[in-house]
Specification:
The complex is a heterodimer of chains A (475) and B (209). Chain A is mainly alpha-helical and 475 residues long. Helices cover 77% and strands 0% of the residues of chain A. Chain A contains 19 helices and no strands. Chain A has helices at residues 2-18, 22-45, 59-85, 90-112, 116-134, 140-172, 181-187, 193-211, 218-226, 229-254, 260-284, 288-309, 312-342, 353-356, 358-371, 378-392, 396-422, 442-456, 460-469. In chain A, helix 1 (2-18) packs antiparallel against helix 4. Chain A is globular, with a radius of gyration of 21 Å. Chain B is mostly helical and 209 residues long. The model of chain B has no long low-confidence stretch (mean pLDDT 85). Classes of the chains: A mainly alpha (475), B mainly alpha (209). Chain A binds chain B through residues 117, 120-121, 124, 128, 140-141, 143-148, 150-151, 154-155, 157-158, 161-162, 164-165, 168-169, 172-173, 177, 192, 194-195, 222, 225-226, 281, 284-285, 287, 290, and chain B through 111, 113, 115-116, 124, 128, 141, 144, 148, 151-152, 155, 158-159, 161-162, 165-166, 168-169, 172-173, 175-176, 179-180, 183-184, 188, 191-192, 195-196, 204-207, 209.
């Protein structure tokens, strides 16, 4: 199935690229959506069956594949709305959809691959396709964003490759010649620790550019800001998940060796610095799209803290990542509508949103409570579990600092969002503001409702899947 | 023989620190391509013929001829001035690059692993950090790309160290090399050139908080 999927998706992507017909474009995109759903269902039914030698739908892969399929439908639909309500140039549309299909395909394949080199190849493909999406508007700002993203991501991908080479050196003594995760996992205790340490440093640093963590988070911020909102939603949800999957798979191997405490230190440092950097910028930034991009950095930092703390933290980290994907994509879809009214992303230009789009402003308000992890948000549950894990691991000071930083983030985010909804903007001409139909906010409402529902009543299927995904980690 | 070639490769890195002109950088990159060809030929002679031919073709045709040609084409087309405009004087550059090399040497000496030939490790790490230093110390966008190409050469050397056992990793490395170089150089530098003529990183600083 994965073979059919890959060939089909590449074919659809090429077909989108080489023609300019509108009807054909949207039928191809719907066809792709069907293909994606078929793949997801097929892989879910065939859990843990190796396909084409290099792909295994294990629990972790399935969790994120399902997340991707749920998000990709609304993302494609919002892209359609984006083109209907804005400039619609056939050439640009064809590149946009071809790149988006390629991005989604590469992400799905990267989740499912069971071989570190194959994962790496698909990560490289995501860089290519996302830069096409960032470049979409073709002006000086997007060219700058694209160049920075491309350059930073290329260097990170090279770093991951160096990490893989070090991993080969680590396994050389045992005579293993396969970089399959399963083989590596079974041989983990005998690996050379020195090379493994170097390998983790390089792979981790490389994947931070995709996962939006310190040190390489900068590229992702520009990307999420400059890409059209539906693409930004994908960057701040499913693309970040892929960075996490890349880190997690190597972490799983390392957790069986003696360097686990050292690795946890690295994750802790990166996590705390991410939350810190996010706080500093969120207090300062005046562009609400970038503000949500920094909020992603914060949440990813918390997830790393959960992973490093261990115990219940493993479960919480993955749950938090899933919930974050839905919340953040809903917020980015909504930002697309805000931008359509004000034609600006500055907090000073936007205001009185409740008057122009009541449904949208309700989404924004609800989203604020969900994204800052206030009850009844599902993220409250996962964040609370992460803090519990930190407490149990005796990181009291760290916990205190994190809680302080989170308070500042809530204040700053709240200030911006309430200002956008209630305070009148200065010098905004509302004569030609088009009304945005409430139906366009439906997908966001569903996502946010879903996040709340999962928090209140986590489905047993999901709990079991997460427990299977983390079963190889030490208890 | 491999040792001599790799030492020559390290010397070219110092040469990069010494010079200021873009044309020198291009020539050094081309020389590095030839040196890599030599190393690849000696190291990989045992793997199958088609694979070997692919690797050799990549080093000679791609690294030695095509990329330098392409770089000089871009410089001519966009009328980029020939000065590299480093932030630091040459003397400091040479000192820094030398200390990078010494640092990698010392780091390599701490490895107690008989399977690894340290000279590969030293060369690769020196090239990696020299490339990174090159990126942060030069002003033009084109020199950033050159810094990246130096990193790529370092990665190639490292992949040769494991290449005899796992030739497919060398191939993947080459894939990265070609893919990225074409993407960065072909598509992008031209686009930037069309939009903002003189290519200086100062012009790419509107996105910030």
């Amino acid at each position: 199935m994965i073979g059919i999927y890959l060939i089909g998706a590449v074919f659809i992507s090429l077909a989108l690229f080489f023609n300019k017909n509108k009807t054909l474009h949207y039928s191809l995109v719907s066809l792709y959506f069907l293909l994606q759903c078929t793949l997801t269902i097929y892989e879910y039914v065939h859990l843990n069956a190796v396909q084409l030698e290099y792909f295994t739908p294990d629990a972790l892969g399935i969790i994120f594949l399902v997340t991707l399929s749920l998000i990709c439908g609304p993302a494609l639909w919002h892209s359609y709305v984006y083109f209907e309500t804005g400039k619609d140039i056939p050439r640009e549309r064809s590149i946009y959809f071809a790149a988006m299909v390629l991005l989604l395909t590469a992400l799905s394949a990267a989740y499912l691959s069971n071989h570190i080199a194959i994962t790496w190849i698909f990560v490289e493909l995501t860089t290519l396709s996302s830069s096409a999406l960032i470049y979409h508007r073709r002006n000086l700002h997007t060219i700058e964003g694209t160049w920075k993203y491309l350059f930073v991501c290329t260097i990170s991908i090279t770093l991951v490759f160096i990490g893989i080479l070090f991993l080969t050196l680590a396994i050389q003594q045992d005579g293993i010649k396969d970089l399959n995760y399963k083989v590596l996992l079974s041989q983990a205790p005998t690996l050379n620790v020195f090379w493994l340490k170097l390998s983790f440093l390089f792979v981790f640093t490389g994947f931070t550019s995709k996962a939006s963590l310190v040190p390489m988070y900068t590229a992702g911020i520009d990307a999420k800001d400059k890409a059209p909102s539906p693409a930004g939603a994908l960057f701040s949800s499913v693309l970040m998940n892929m960075g996490f999957v890349g880190i997690f798979r190597l972490y799983e191997i390392i957790s069986h060796t003696s360097i686990l405490p050292w690795t946890n230190q690295i994750l802790l440092i990166s996590g705390v610095l991410s939350v810190f950097v996010a706080t500093v910028y969120m207090l300062k930034v005046k562009n609400f799209k970038r503000m949500f991009a920094y909020s992603s950095v914060e949440h990813m930092g918390l997830i790393m803290l959960g992973l490093a703390a261990g115990g219940i933290g493993y479960y919480a980290a993955i749950l938090h990542l899933i919930l974050h994907s839905f919340t953040k994509s809903a917020m980015f879809f909504q930002i697309g509508q805000v931008y359509r009214i004000y034609k600006s992303k500055s907090v000073y230009d936007a205001g009185d949103y409740f008057r122009y789009n009541p449904t949208g402003s309700m989404i924004l308000l609800l989203g604020f409570f969900v994204v800052t992890a206030m009850p009844p948000s599902g993220m409250f549950v996962s964040e609370f579990l992460i803090f519990t894990a930190l407490f149990q691991a005796n990181h009291f000071w760290l916990l205190a600092i994190i809680l302080l930083l989170l308070t500042m983030i809530i204040w700053s985010l709240g200030k911006t969002i309430f200002r956008m909804i209630f305070i009148k903007p200065i010098g905004f001409n509302d004569t030609d503001v088009k009304k945005i139909p409430a139906i366009e906010s439906l997908s966001q409402l569903v996502f946010l409702g879903f996040v709340i529902y999962i928090g209140v009543n986590t489905p047993t299927v999901l709990i079991n899947l997460i427990h299977v995904a983390i079963q190889n980690l030490p208890k | 023989m491999t040792n001599i070639i790799l030492i020559a490769f390290i010397i070219t890195l110092v040469q990069l620190g010494l010079s200021k002109r873009l044309s020198t950088y291009i020539r050094v990159l081309s020389i590095q391509g030839i040196l890599l060809f030599g190393v690849a030929f000696i190291e990989l002679i045992e793997i199958n013929v088609i694979n070997l031919l692919f690797v050799l073709l990549e080093t000679v045709v791609f690294k030695t001829l095509m990329i330098p040609y392409f770089l000089s084409y871009i410089i001519k087309k966009n009328k980029i001035t020939h000065e590299a405009e480093p932030f630091l004087p040459d003397f400091m550059s040479v000192v820094i690059i030398t200390s990078i090399i010494i640092g990698s040497f010392l780091l390599a000496n701490t490895i107690g692993d008989p399977h690894v030939r340290k000279i590969f490790f030293v060369t690769a790490l020196s090239a990696l950090f020299t490339g990174l230093y090159f990126i942060i110390s030069r002003k033009k966008i084109i020199t950033h790309v050159m810094g990246f190409l130096i990193i790529e050469n370092g990665v190639f050397v490292l992949s040769l160290a494991v290449g005899a056992e796992m030739p497919f990793l060398v191939n993947i490395g080459i894939l990265l090399d070609i893919f990225v170089s074409v993407l960065l150089l072909g598509v992008f530098v031209n686009k930037i050139g069309d939009m903002i003529g003189e290519q200086d990183v100062d012009q790419l600083s509107s996105l910030k908080d």
